[in-house]
């Protein structure tokens, strides 16, 4: 039988956290911005089919960075949680807060109990009737949960990207302006001024989806044409 | 040969909400419950639904009455629902179960769309509904049958299509028009005379409302247009642009026109 070396709990947790942080920083960033028209999700993602942004429920969206297989399984679990809850209670009883706390519990459990922690960071956003009712939650690999105000930046060189967003963000931004700000921020560590529309994945939770599209489902994925058009609009 | 964990993952991965419920929360399913011995007390029954194709799509209409034996259980019940963006379903039979099956079916389609990132094909949707009705067969044998009618726009083929079902979940594609429920015989007779190929949308709506009028005329369980309470049939159209509920005021105008033309004709039927 091999001898187990003693590792202090502090060291064990630190090693796990460092491992997860490294994995997340290797990826590309995602920006989630609350604006006048709703909540915009912008991710640097060259793949048109492997999404980092997804719909969870009527007013709730999801964005993630890190390992695709891990956050994809979390996204699917979130959709299942929301659909079961909405089916057994009522659609309006599904909230981002409830979902975020379930995510926090599973991430926390995996961080302490499993072989390796999830190398992911998640954002859960819920669009409200007014901007004051918007909810943005950031969830990290160890199960920590933070209620963010205005915007969330995750993955890659998150600090640098967040600085650009923080400098340009104001609550009155419309969707096009919020998208331009996010795309500009995502390009901070690149040689270029702005990313081409094909290199970004964009989705939006429309604030007025009932009145503008007649749909209670606020989530809408933007195609390359819509993105080009919105980015081209001059403020 | 797969290793056990991979096999476990493969069996857990499902895009179907119903399968997920069967595994984790079977008590939430409307069917599949073991009923105790004895007879089921009277329950509200939903009645007549008509559906027909027209130029560019299909439409479905249902009256507003639910009956419980000889009593009118509801004058306001709605029996036609949007299933997703490109399909609608109408239900006849035990109202309580039918409404829950409708809710389950709506979540089933939305769930698949969210998990897979793409819409289910129209045939796929029709098959899922058939599987649910088959799941309800034990209840049907206790007298709690649910019979739906399903209509949708096939975005690949570019046509509106219509499916009927039996209590065993058998799925049959219908041509031109179809109706289910207690007044369906009379509605069908009316549709045979009123329907013609490539009806424009407004005329098609009027045909559906008139078929329901004829059903209500001869079937006591079907409600006709109710001018006192301002209750009109529920009508949904489905075409390339998706489904649309016809506004109340349009239906009121159509229903009043039908009543007026029949009054003017001064005939028995």
Strands, helices and their partners?
The complex is a heterodimer of chains A (235) and B (269).
Chain A: H1 9-26, E1 30-35, E2 38-44, E3 53-57, E4 60-66, H2 68-88, H3 96-113, E5 120-126, E6 135-139, E7 145-148, E8 151-154, H4 158-168, H5 175-186, E9 200-206, H6 209-213, E10 219-222, H7 224-232
Helix pairs in contact in A: 4-5
Chain B: H1 4-12, H2 17-24, E1 45-46, E2 49-54, E3 57-62, E4 66-68, E5 71-74, E6 80-84, E7 87-94, H3 95-116, H4 122-135, H5 137-141, E8 146-154, E9 159-165, E10 171-174, E11 177-180, H6 184-194, H7 201-218, E12 234-239, E13 242-245, H8 248-265
Antiparallel strand pairs in B: 1-4, 1-7, 2-3, 2-11, 3-12, 4-5, 6-7, 7-8, 8-9, 9-10, 12-13
Structural summary, described in words:
The complex is a heterodimer of chains A (235) and B (269). Chain A has 235 residues and is an alpha+beta fold. Chain A is globular, with a radius of gyration of 18 Å. In chain A, the strands form 2 sheets. Chain A has a 5-stranded antiparallel beta sheet with strand order 8-1-2-9-10. Chain A starts with 8 loop residues before the first helix and ends with a helix. Chain A has 7 helices and 10 strands. Chain B has 269 residues and is an alpha+beta fold. Chain B has a single domain, classed as Glutamine Phosphoribosylpyrophosphate, subunit 1, domain 1 (4-Layer Sandwich). Chain B contains 8 helices and 13 strands. In chain B, the strands form 2 sheets. In chain B, strands 1, 4, 5, 6, 7, 8, 9 and 10 form an 8-stranded antiparallel beta sheet that branches. The longest helix of chain B has 22 residues, at 95-116. The chains are: A alpha+beta (235), B alpha+beta (269).
